[in-house]
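Convert to structure. Protein one:
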Amino acid sequence: MRMDSVRLIQNYNGIYNKFRQGEYIKKNKWDHCDEKKRKGAWTGNVYDRAGRVVEYGLENGVCQGLVGAYLISGQSWSRFSAYIASEKGKTVVRGIMNFQEHLSASGNMKEMKSVFHGILKSYQVNFIREEIKLTGNTAITMAQSILKSVSQGNGCHISIKKSSSGHSLGLRAESNQIKIFDPNYGETVFPFKNGISDEMEKFLIHIFSEYYSQYFMLTVEHYSASVFS
C-alpha cells in the first residue's frame, strides 16, 4: 500500500496489517510451473492465443479464498495469519479457489455463490442476504452502500468487478471496531461506535478511488456468526 494511504490510516487512528496475496501464493507454490508441485492447487493453466502459458495454476490470485478464511478466522490478525499458514487454513483457501477455477472452466460460475456459502456454513459462518448494485456506482456510493447495512456481529464478502476481472474483500464489524481486509494489501481497522465509522467510510472512498477506480459493479454478501461478536 502506498505511503499516502498508510498516513491516511494513521491520521484516522486506524491500524494497518500488511499482506500480499502474491507472496502467499508463491510461498505455497500454488503457481509452480510444474503442476505436480502445486501442493493440491489447481493444475490447469491459462494460455494466450499462441498457446503460451500466461498464468500457472492459481497465479492470478486467491482473493475469494482468503476472504473466506478471513470470515472464518479474522478475530485477530495474529489468529488469521496463523490460520492461513496452517494446513487447515490452506485447505480452505485452496479449496475455494479450486472450486472457482473448475466452475469457471466448465462454464458454471453461477454455482460459485452457493459453493462459497456452503463452505462457510460448515464453519458456522452463515449467509444472510446479498445486495447487488451493478450500475451508477462511484467510490462514494460504493462505500456508503457497504456501510449503511453493516451492523455489529456481521461480516461481509465484498465483490467488486469491472468488465474483464473481479476482486474480493472481506469486512468484519465487531463490538467496537470495524475491519476491512484486501488480499492485495492487508487489513485496516478503525473504531466502530453505534454502528458508525466515518473513518472507514473515508478510507473505503480512498481505496475505491485510488486502487480500484475501474471497478464499479458491486455485490455485498452479509454473514452472521458468533465469531464476529
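Protein two, convert as well:
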Amino acid sequence: MRDTLLNRISFSLHLLMKIYSMSNIKQPFFRIAFLCFIATLWCRPAFAQLSEISQDSIFVTYQQLKSKEASLLKIDQWRQETKTDIEQKALALDPQVKAVFISDAEKVLKQQWPVLTASEFLEFTRNGNRSNFEKKYKVRRDMLKKLLVGELLEKKGRFLPMIADGVWMICEESTWALPATMDVDQRGFGLPEVYNPVVDLCVAQTAILLGWTKFFFNKELNQLNSKLIPRIDHELNVRAVQPYLSHNDFWWMGFTGRKPNNWNIYCNYYVLMTALTAVENSQLREEIIVKSMKSVEYFLASYADDGGCDEGPNYWNMAGGTFGIYLKALHEITGKKLDFSNRPKIHQMGTYLYKVHIDSNYFVNFADAPPRSNPDPAKIYAFGEMFNDDRLKSFAASFFQRTWAKQKTMQADEINVFLQNLQISDVMLKTKAQEPLEKSNWLPDLQVLTLRQQQGTNAGLLFAAKGGHNAESHNHNDVGNFILYQDGKPVIIDVGIGTYTRDTFNEQRWSIWNIRSLWHNCPTVNGLEQQNGEQYRATNVGYAEKGQTGYFLLDIASAYPASAGVEKLVRNFEFQRKQAKLVLTENYQLKTWQKPYELNFITALRTSQPKAGVLRFQQSTTGKTIEMQFDPNGFDLEIETKTQEDPKLVALWGNKVYRIALKSKSKSVSGNHVITFATR
C-alpha cells in the first residue's frame, strides 16, 4: 500500500509539472478541471489493490533468499559464464551457418547508414505513417547487429570500425523511441523532448543492443578509441537506466493502476539485461533488478490461472515468452537459488503456446495476430527447462530444426534472440522435434477453445473458437468468433491484423475493416455489429466433451449495443470428430425486427455452389473440399469480395478475401437455425 501511495504521488507530480505548464491550465475553469482530474487518480482503485502482491511473489521470494545469503547476486560469475558459453557456442557453430552470418556482415560493409530526418519522424503526427521512419531506424540497428554477430564469429577485427560508426550514430540520435510508441505526454508535439527521455519498447531494445556491444567488445572498442565505451555508458545511463529508476508513471510499469500488457515484461527484461551486461555500479544494478521484480509482478498478476495470452500467440514472444527468459535470467544471476519451478500458473503461460498451435507455423490467431508465426525456440525451451517439461522442449526443437537449422541460418531480428538461441543450439539439434498437436485444449479464463479431429496429427479438421470480451489487449470485436482448418490449412479464417498505422491504436481502430465484427465469423444483428468495451462480452460460456464430440456453447447477446435489441443469441458449436463435421446451431430472441439477421463467414478460398443450400470450399494445393450446408429456404446467400491492398495481408491471404453472408429471409424476432461444415 505504501508503494502504491508513493507511486500515485509521483504520477500526480509528473502530471502537475506537465499540464500546469500549459497556458490554459492557469485559467480558473481549467485549474478546477485539472484538480478534479488529479483527484480521480487518487480515488480510483489501483491495479495493485485489485490483485494484491502475494507472499510468494518474485520480489518477496528474492528478499527471503537474500536475508539468508547477503551475496545472493552473482553478476560477475554470470558475466564470465555467459561470455565463455556464447564464445564457445560461436566457435562450434556449423561452418555453413557461420559463413551465412559473416557474409551478411560483409554486405553491411558496403552499405550506407540511413539518415533519420525530422520530417519522417513527423509523418506519424501529420498523416499517420509510421513505416518510413521506422524502416530506416530498424535498418540501422539491423546493420549493427549483423556486424556484431560477424565479429563475434570471425574475431578478426575487420568489422570493428563500422561497429564503432553504428554505435556513435545511434548514440547521436535525439531519441531511441519511435514516434508511434513515444510517451503519450510527448506524442502530441510530434518531435521528442530530448531533455525528458522515456523508456519504451525500442529504447529498451536499443539499450540491450549497445549493452551486448560493450559486453563482447569492451577491450577492442577501447583500443579503437578510448571515448567509445564511456559514450555507451553515458547514453545507457541517460536514456535507459535513470529514466527507468526515476519514473513510476510509465504506463507499462503497472504502478499507475493500468493493466499491463507485453510492454511491461519486454521493457523490464531488456532494461534488466542492459544492467547485467553493461552497468558497472553494483548498487544501480540491484536497484534495477529489484524494481523489475516489483513491476513484473503486475504483469504476472494480469494473467489468469490458465496462463492464456489475450494478445494472441504472435505477441506471446513479447509477453509470456519474454517472461520465461526473464525468470531464467533471475535464476542464473542468483546462482540458481531463485527458482520458479513450483508455480503452476507460470507453467501454464508456457504451455499456452502449443495449446493454440494448429500445425507447422499456423496458430489460432484471434486478436492482433497473423495466422502464421515463428515463435522464438529459446523462449519455449526456457519454460521446458524450468519445469522439466519434455513436451515443451520438443516443441521448441520443432521450430528450431524446421526453421533455423534446416535453412542453415539462425537469423533473428534482435541480437538478444540470436544469442539466446545460439546458447541452446547444441541442445536443440539433439532434442527430438515434436509438435504436441493435442486433441482438446480449453482455456477457461481466456475462453479460447481448440479442438482437432485426431491427436498428434494435422490430418482432418481443426476448430477453434472464443468467448471473452471486446476490451482484451490488442482486441478485435470478435466475441463468438471461430476458425476452421483442414489438414493444417485455413478454410474459415480470422484475417488478423494488417500493417500498423496511427489509426490502429486510436479511436479510429474500430472502423478498420478487419477489426470489425462484420469481417469476423460473427452475426450482424438488426444491421448492427459488435461494439468495443469490456461490457460487450460472452455470457453463459461452457465447454464439454462427450464421446467423440466437443461442445462449445455461449450467449453473445451482450456483445451487441442495446440498440440492436438482442435479448438472447446463443451459439452452440458441435465438433463431431467421427463424422468430420462442425455443426453451428444458433438460437436468438430479439426485442424488435429492424433488418435481416445475418451470419458472416470469412475465407480466402474460392467457393462454388453445386446446389442450393450448399457452398463448397476447395483447397488450391490439395484439392480437398469442405461443404457448408444451410437452409436455402431460410437464407439468401451473398458473397462480398475484399481486394487486399495491405502488403502484409496480401502475403498472408493473397489478393482477395471473401465475406460469405447468409441473410435470413424471416422477419421474425426469434430464430433457430443450423449451419454445417463437413469434409467431402
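The domain at 440-679 is CATH 2.70.98.70 (Beta-galactosidase; Chain A, domain 5). Residues 1-51 have pLDDT under 50 and may be disordered.
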